[in-house]
Amino acid sequence: MAVSGDTVAQPDADGTNPSPIPLTQLERAHQFIAQPVVASFMAGGVAGAVSRTVVSPLERLKILFQVQSAGRSEYKMSVHKALAKMWRDEGWRGFMAGNGTNCIRIVPYSAVQFSAYNVYKRFFEDEPGSPLGAYQRLFCGGLAGVTSVTFTYPLDIVRTRLSIQSASFESLKRKSGEKLPGMFGILVSMYKNEGGFLALYRGIIPTVAGVAPYVGLNFMVYEIMRTHFTPEGEKDPSAVGKLAAGAVSGAVAQTCTYPFDVLRRRFQINTMSGMGYQYTGIWDAVSNIVKTEGIRGMYKGIVPNLLKVAPSMASSWLSFELTRDFIMGKRRSGFL
């Protein structure tokens, strides 16, 4: 039985002269979502939500480390002590602070990223489904990263501010019982008080500068490691192999691009009072951080970041592949 367009070819009783039969609404819907770009969009959204929720406490701790400038000591401690402090101060809600917004951001971010990659790679394929070279994956991944971050950047700023507004920074103490603003409240406040629409994209330049190589490296290294972890004679690696490939790709990509992530966080809260800094540009930020905090200042938060990146990227890639294969019924050629 062959499917073509909006019909399915059903052979006659004698097995000849197939007659077209219109597809049902359900069959047409399944045919639509089984397309590689659509399936990647849906699977990417699932992968993003799973990966971020798994590592939410470490993600928030990384942000608290990143935004703490010289002279601040509230979170100048080891990772396990900082996590314990977060638990004492805020409990389980502290571990998950900003995660709801992060998932709202990461679902479309990850969905757009994976689907955009499938769109861009078509320009480099010799034929549909043919594998790309390492540098082609790097380039297509970089373009996909820029596309996704441009669409979802305002939610990233909100997530950062939600992550730090309840933290026990001395200068951010509020009156007892004062209600903290939510996602929509922060968006409105930034728009009204910090420069309108442009305020929602503060820090986008260092973000794009870091995201393009990060996503490109992630796609490139994952495919290399995926091949490495595939047993001889097999087409795909096992679930453990996919987890390992995702962990390695995430660690390599994050380590290479981490200073851009620190700059992104600093610029996202650059206009918040009480944080101890207000940079005029990227070079001013870099020079001030290095001068007051040393080179290590550009790598603040990298320890919890590396601790989170392995389970985050491993679960992301595994969730993506499992969901995409389920949606497409494993009817696909090539990897991505």
Describe the structure.
Helix content is 65%, strand content 3%. It is mainly alpha-helical. It has two domains: 1-33, no CATH class; 37-328, Mitochondrial carrier domain (Mitochondrial carrier fold, Alpha/alpha barrel), CATH 1.50.40.10. A three-stranded antiparallel sheet has the order 1-2-3, with no helix packed on it. A hairpin with an 8-residue loop joins β2 (7-10) and β3 (19-22). α2 (36-54) runs antiparallel to α6. The protein starts with a strand and ends in an 8-residue tail after the last helix. The model has no long low-confidence stretch (mean pLDDT 80).
Binned strand content = under 5%
User: What is the share of helical residues?
Assistant: 55-70%
Tell me the total number of β-strands.
3
Q: Order of strands side by side in the largest beta sheet?
A: 1-2-3
Average predicted local confidence, pLDDT: 80
Number of helices: 12
Q: How many domains make up the coordinates?
A: 2
Based on CA atoms alone, the radius of gyration comes out at 23 Å
What attributes does this structure have?
Mitochondrial carrier fold, 65% helix, repeat, three-stranded antiparallel sheet, 3% strand, mainly alpha, 2 domains, 336 residues
